[in-house]
Batch of 2 targets.
Target 1
Amino acid sequence: MRSRLMGLAVLALAASTLAFAQQGTGQRVVVEKKVRGPEKMDQMLNLTDEQEAKIEKLRGEMQRTMVQNRSKIQIARIDLRELMDADTPDRGAIEKKFKEIGDIQIKQRMAMFDHHADIEKLLTPDQKKIWKEHRGEGRMEGRQRVMRRMGGRAGFGPGCGSGCGSGCGSG
């Protein structure tokens, strides 16, 4: 009996929803895609075709460098895990591997610094002003996207979601 009543209630709800549904007006709704990252900066800077071409070449080179460095770091981390999982871990070898990973990370950060410097060399004084004002926004947007995907939870940095600012405890 209950299941029949529930079925009738669901059917009535569906029927009322369909009765109040409106037909489309025939107009297309155009959703503007939000421009992010390098494309957003390119628009803000109002780059010339020549500047765009040179910057695109620099980006390709930078992406290759970053991929190579990331793969070196991943391989070194696998090596490190194996060293640490050994029956008798070699402290010297482990320390050497940590330094190797750190050196690659420093190279990666310096490559990014050099990349930004190379781009800045291509800009006019007015474009440099805009560049300096807005260059950190892309990183913040990326972090915000990651946080939204995680459901707004903390998860990076000290504490990894516990303690002050994470919504746990009294702060």
Target 2
Amino acid sequence: MTELGMDKAVFEMQLAECDPGPAGCDAAEMLVQTNPGQAIQPLRKIASGGELSRVMLAIKSALSVPIARA
């Protein structure tokens, strides 16, 4: 988050248990605290457009990095 200019922000992923169906089972929520003193909340509810853009850029960048194989 620091590299995105969000030095004080906290980011967490929350994974929920679910019953798998034909398409599998993915129940994940991105949680963020953008300002000290605020409660950590779902990203989709509290992030501004700029914050959403920076988080998406970070996710896309992380996914594009090749994984070293031993």
